[in-house]
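Example 4.3 (complexes with small molecules)
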Amino acid sequence: MSRYWSELAASLVPYVPGEQPKDKKYIKLNTNENPYPPSPAVLEALRGAAGGDLRLYPDPSSTALTETIAEYYRLPPASVFVGNGSDEILAFAFAALFRTSEPVYYPDITYSFYPVYASLYGLESVKVPLTDDFDVPIESFYNVDGGIIIPNPNAPTSKYVALEGIRSILEHNPDRVVVVDEAYIDFGGESAVKLIHDFPNLLVVQTLSKSRSLAGLRVGFALGHPDLIDGLNRVKNSFNSYTIDRLASAGAVAALKDEIYFQQCCRNVIATRERIAGQLRELGFDVPESKANFLFIAHPDKPAEELFRKLRDKGILVRYFNKPRIDNRLRVSIGTDEEMDAFVAALRELTVAAA
Ligand code: PMP
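Answer. The structure with 4'-deoxy-4'-aminopyridoxal-5'-phosphate bound is encoded below.
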């Protein structure tokens, strides 16, 4: 007979991260990492921080990092929260800013962590279907009776809501918290950060994992009215007040200060994305316009699962989601030009030569 705690444990349905395989060296286009290394200034800062001070706890307020982000976005430090990757911040936001007496609204298809957090914190989810073209239906988020989270650009669809769309969702929900998850905003989108002064109900969440090549360091941040930031801090301090360690903090500060490297890196990823999107369309793929560091592609004749397996056999890893509506699509992160050329060549073999 199963005991109540085994049933409780089994009732938790966790997020399943993308593969990080160790069996051989792959061209890894499956978890939206940046193909370029972090700024050299980051490595230098990490070396500087890797000394005797590691015996000391880090600053629980992450003052240096908070102030660096505040300066970067021209906001007061009280409008900035830093966390151990944006996943952690999103978890805190679900706990601190959404009420269990009300549902939380998000698009259906979206980042699969949202239903996990909702269920963990006992929130009902209202999943708002995307349009046939995978767009977020803005008006379906007007005057809702609960919290809202919008990923922009959306994952895994790569599609983007223009700033005016975000503004109108905020205007139609003055009494609801609206979280905008901007993990991929630096690849061509316009951030909602500039709306923070007008909307005290807006929390913008970003990460250093993608555009700043620091997925391995685990640093994200949130920007918003100090009352929202206060809520996040209260949750953080109820779990672990030292979320950002000394090395992560030093590396993150250095990354944020190297604007030239950052801009160049984003430009490279965007240029590769546009070049590869064009080549895939020539091969007959449907490729929605992407504002992220990945493409969400479908072939009219070749099932995505088959392409996923055959690419894997050729040493190229992409993401396949076995879920309704998107089970014939692949999500492909933008790698270096050489990696993407190998990817297109492999797809050409699988779709044209063998057809
Ligand atoms: N939001 C979205 C939409 C994402 O795709 C990801 C990355 N998987 C994250 C947040 C979390 O990124 P991180 O925790 O590395 O900051």
